[in-house]
Write a structure and sequence with these properties.
With 347 residues, the chain is an alpha+beta fold. It is built from 6 helices and 20 strands. The strands form 5 sheets. Strands 4, 6, 7, 10, 14, 17 and 20 form a 7-stranded antiparallel sheet that branches. A hairpin with a 4-residue loop joins strand 1 and strand 2. Helix 2 packs across helix 5, helix 3 crosses helix 5 and helix 4 packs across helix 5. It starts with 19 loop residues before the first strand and ends with a strand.
Length: 347
Amino acid sequence: MVDPKNGTVLMTIDAPERNSYGLAFDGTNLWNASLNTGKIFCLVHNDDEFYMTKNPKKSVVTYTHLTTNFGPGTVKTIDVYFAVPENRINQKLLKEPEYSVEPQYATDKWGQKLAHFHIKNLKTGEQSEIIETIYAETYDVRYFIFPDEAGSLSDIPQEIKEKYLADDSKYELGHPVIQSAVNEAVGDEKNPYWIARKIYDYLISKMYYEMTGGWNTAPTVLARGNGSCSEYSFVYISMCRAAGLPARYVGSIVQRGQLFAMDDVFHRWVEVYLPKYGWIPVDPSGGDHTSPAAQARYFGYLGNRFLITTQSGGGSEYLDWQYNSNVYHTSTPKTYVVHEYFGDWKE
């Protein structure tokens, strides 16, 4: 679907059969023909359903956190926090997550549930291993969003505004770089959808994806012009909040192209709040494409290869700016400690 005013691809839909051929509009309905079977399909183009799930996939995902003490001293304490995944539109937990070590539970200021593990006195040459096992069914999710039905900024609940318009150390909403970018990208736009989309399009035009290392602040990343998925997310959230649109991030473990796959890179993206539709996924780093259709794919779409573990608005008292897990340790002087973490997918 294309906006006739500016040519922006608003959404894409799946063809009813693999080799579909041609489209026709009779003034009311949109029709599509099959090249192979000769069938003609009347396509649903606007109804009360604003998202669709398909391609369910059952998986067992294990997330492992290792702490190794290479000495010469002792690691006195280790505190590991695992983000506990929950049921969402894109995923259903088939049972409660299981842990190799019995945890205590906590909840941070963003409402994220965490499994907490406390280890004492890890000696030289010893290793601590904690494994989380998640049984889940994940789905492809596609949202169908009509800009003129997205509501207005005044329709956003006050509790959402208070929580997800706040500034934080990675965002720096008042920084001149952010303020100038919002003014250039958004102007006097008031429609929530178009605020989100114009900022998305702006970042596609101004940045390119690169794993540069480190998680710099939004103004630094935007001025530099490139960034990782996390850095794209910081910039996008900063600009959305500065424009008055609530935004937060989610973090995930990713299946990377194989039935049995290991992930040690992970992925983070953004959700924006549109009054009629609720929280909508937007992946500004995924939108780094030249094709308008490919760009539109990452606005309101999730694949079934993502298992979301973390939902947060910013710095957490347990996870800090991490997602999936975080760790704190204390040790005697000059002790070399290494933390490793990775996810494994099995279907």
